Amino acid sequence: MAEVLTSPFEDFIVLNPCEKIYPQELEDFYTKIAPVKEMCVFMVSGKEGVKKSRVLWAIIQPNLDSFREFGEVNLRFVLKERFDNASQSLPLHKRIKGFTITLEDLPRNTLGQLNRDEIKKIYEPRVIAGKEGALPVSGELTADDLLLLRTVIAKRILQCLEELSGIRRPIILEDSLELDLGIDSLGRIELTSGLESAFSADLKVESISQAFSVKDLILRITDALKGAKEIPLEDQEAALGEDFWKEHLKIPPKAETMQMLELSTGYFAWAFRFMLTAIDCLIFKLFFSIKAEGAQNVPKEGAYILYGNHTSFLDGPAIGACLPRRPVFQIFYFVFGPYFFRPFTKNRVLRNLVKMGRFIPFDFSTHFLEALRSCYYVLQHGKGLCIFPEGLRSTDGEMGEFKKGFGVLAKVTGAMLVPVAIIGAHEAWASTAKYPKSYPIRVRFGKPFLPADLEKQGLTMGTQDPYEAICFAARKALIELKIDVIPAKAGIQ
Fold this sequence. Notes:
Helix content is 44%, strand content 14%. The protein has helices at residues 23-33, 64-69, 75-87, 116-129, 143-150, 152-165, 185-199, 206-209, 214-224, 233-240, 244-249, 255-258, 267-287, 315-322, 325-328, 337-340, 348-356, 368-380, 404-413, 425-428, 451-460, 466-485; strands at 13-16, 19-21, 36-45, 54-62, 98-101, 201-202, 229-230, 291-293, 304-308, 331-336, 359-362, 384-387, 416-423, 442-445. Helix 18 (368-380) packs parallel to helix 19 and helix 19 crosses helix 22 (466-485).
């Protein structure tokens, strides 16, 4: 049942006759469930070229301290997921249809309240045009900013950012690393290596992973260089070579990470996985009438990567319930750490259960490279890996773009890639739903591909980067596999 919001606020928006929407009421609602410092909701007309269209839109200034506290760097991913989940409790006409992120303070009036007219005047044209990130610079820079830009450190950082992002326009201090320069989690790893080479210093991961704007990055790097150790010349040359990712991934995981990787199947680990698999299969057969197809395509030996579409919490367990007996005891699962592992970090018993379950946790910030190294390590030891290349669950059931890290892992390891189409999991337990419901699920394993073949196919489709070419071709293969399953979906009901 939809939650009904009531409010005494005077400012309101009318999208449809007899339906008043109070923006401050919605702002308070969304701010409570997401790391938002402040936001402004208003009506946008003419979105996507439709003159008479009117939609609710939000301008959001994220709470960067909250993102740093939880090790998150992908602002849009986190905010979208929180908003999509919370919106399910609102009537349809009160749900915002989208948002624009800004790192700058929103204009306020003399009473300290949001200046809604000014905000709409500034941002509505940008919303209609699909622009996001830093606003155009107005006026002159402050004396402190001018001094900052004149430093040798700032000049080297700006040069590295220009080379990495490919931005042709001048980079400004207010630019967002993610929104303006397109630097994602993998980009931050590449940026770290480039900056360490530029300064011949070993920089702390936090100095880059916790920076969100160019100015923030410069200040953090300046501070980090004060106690940084010098990097040997041979390591600098390796970082700049063509085998950048191979050189980085072949470094063994840290000792504490190695303790979480169960390569051998001891008696207790085998018994735990047997019990877990039996319960998993029983639940999916009883409540979801699960059926598998093409399980023989899963290799029995050697390194391979199962990759599937991701729309539900049920995706991983559904794959596990359909695996043949031998692979089910050999495979590792690459899972989003903040969802599964924060409660386990301080409990030794739970940590061991996670270890025996063969989960490799990752986040998009400080532990992303370590997680990739763990994946490389288990694949080099001839194990299987289950991964969802979209990164996070889709909220609408549609397949998102594959993350570049999937292409990097595939190309560097050369492991066989097995697409897995999962149908019905979104309907059974969508990411926006609180509880699952009984609904038939079907899992289809496609024929394996070699990364080199997918790379060639992706390059012929117009992609320039070899890692992105693998992602593009692998996604296409999974979409085709999923389409083949849908016509037969009625047969499992």
